[in-house]
Each structure stands twice: as structure tokens, then as C-alpha cells.
């Protein structure tokens, strides 16, 4: 590697660093996938793991349009109370390959977050509900089928959306994701 010292022009500035024991993230919980054996439909829960209070979150999730059809995006249990999430906006991509959801908890003045914020912890923010276009045939012993759900930035929505969270100070921050 390359190293530079003060005699070669390195300038140091006093400051501080905060070490956190948690990184926020978005992920699809594969163990909680709900489905119906009779009509090849199911909903994938999208979870936000917050390390500190969050004022909002935006999700952009894609899928293989040859395997799945996105039917709806619904409020997860953390955003199910309409009085809790003042804004819940969804968009299913015209190309059929994904959808987006934006959730803002305090969308009305005075924006003080005194009542509404995702606390630190795990929150089900949305349910992406699908129909399988090529479901297993139901034959005993036939293998289960799976298809990836992938978080994407800058490709879904109009205008295009990224996976972000908004802290209680109103700052948007990129959100690490784990595909499902």
C-alpha cells in the first residue's frame, strides 16, 4: 500500500470518531414470507433495522418479471396505523420488474417528531405482494421454487428512487440492503 506522512504533506486535524454497534439496514425476511398454496400468491415483508430513531424510509425492490408479478405494496405492521405514518406512497414499475414505497412518519408542520418516529430496533415497513407466474405444479416431491428479490438504487420509479432512511433531523442517508 501507499503511505504518506506529515513531511510529505499529510495534514492532521483534531476530531472525534463515534463507534456504533449497529448499522441500519433494509432486508426481506424470507422466513416470514406469507403465501397461499391455492393461488400462487404471497407477500414478502421488508424490514428496517434502525440503530437510532428514523423519520422515514424509502424502498426500491426489484424482481424477475418472468417469474413474479407485483400486485400491491401494503403497509407493514410498523406503518399500519394511518395516524402513525402520515405519508405512505407506492409505485409499481410500468416495466413490471419492481416497485417503490416511501414512508414519512411526520409529514405535517411543525415536523418535530415528538410523536412519530421509528424507534431503534426492527420494523416491518412494507409488504410487497406477488403472484407467481410459473408456480410449482404441486406434485408431491416437486422441488420448491424461489426467485430473488433485489434492492436497487436509481432504476425504479419516476423519478428514480434509492433505498434510504431519513433521520429525525431530516437528513437522507443511504441504507445498506440485504437482498432476499
Helix content range of the residues, please?
under 10%
Average pLDDT, to the nearest integer?
A: 81
Contiguous uncertain segments of 5+ residues? none
**Portion in strands:** 35-45%
**How would you sum up the global shape?**
globular
- Count of DSSP H/I helices: 0
Radius of gyration: 20 Å
- Biggest sheet architecture: 6 strands, mixed
**Tally of DSSP β-strands:** 12
Q: SSE string, helix = H, strand = E?
A: EEEEEEEEEEEE
- Report the structural category: mainly beta
Distance between the termini: 36 Å
Describe this structure in words.
The protein is mainly beta. Helices cover 0% and strands 40% of the residues. Strands 1, 2, 3, 5, 8 and 12 form a six-stranded mixed β-sheet that branches. Strands 4, 6, 7, 9, 10 and 11 form a six-stranded antiparallel β-sheet that branches. Strand 6 and strand 7 form a beta hairpin. The protein is globular and about 70 Å long. The mean pLDDT is 81.
Amino acid at each position: 500500500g501507499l503511505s504518506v506522512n506529515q513531511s510529505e504533506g499529510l495534514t492532521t486535524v483534531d476530531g472525534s470518531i463515534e463507534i456504533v454497534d449497529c448499522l441500519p439496514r433494509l432486508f426481506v425476511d424470507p422466513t416470514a414470507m406469507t403465501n397461499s398454496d391455492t393461488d400462487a400468491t404471497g407477500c414478502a415483508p421488508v424490514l428496517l433495522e434502525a440503530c437510532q430513531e428514523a423519520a422515514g424510509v424509502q424502498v426500491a425492490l426489484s424482481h424477475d418479471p418472468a417469474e413474479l408479478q407485483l400486485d400491491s405494496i401494503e403497509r407493514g405492521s410498523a406503518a399500519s396505523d394511518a395516524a402513525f405514518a402520515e405519508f405512505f406512497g407506492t409505485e409499481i414499475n410500468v416495466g413490471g420488474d419492481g416497485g417503490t414505497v416511501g414512508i414519512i412518519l411526520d409529514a405535517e408542520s411543525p415536523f418535530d417528531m415528538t410523536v412519530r418516529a421509528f424507534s431503534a430496533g426492527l420494523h416491518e415497513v412494507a409488504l410487497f405482494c406477488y403472484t407467481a407466474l410459473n408456480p410449482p405444479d404441486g406434485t408431491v416431491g416437486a422441488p420448491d421454487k424461489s426467485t430473488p428479490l433485489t434492492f436497487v438504487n436509481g432504476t425504479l420509479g419516476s423519478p428514480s428512487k434509492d433505498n434510504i432512511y431519513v433521520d429525525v433531523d431530516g437528513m437522507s442517508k443511504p441504507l445498506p440492503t440485504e437482498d432476499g
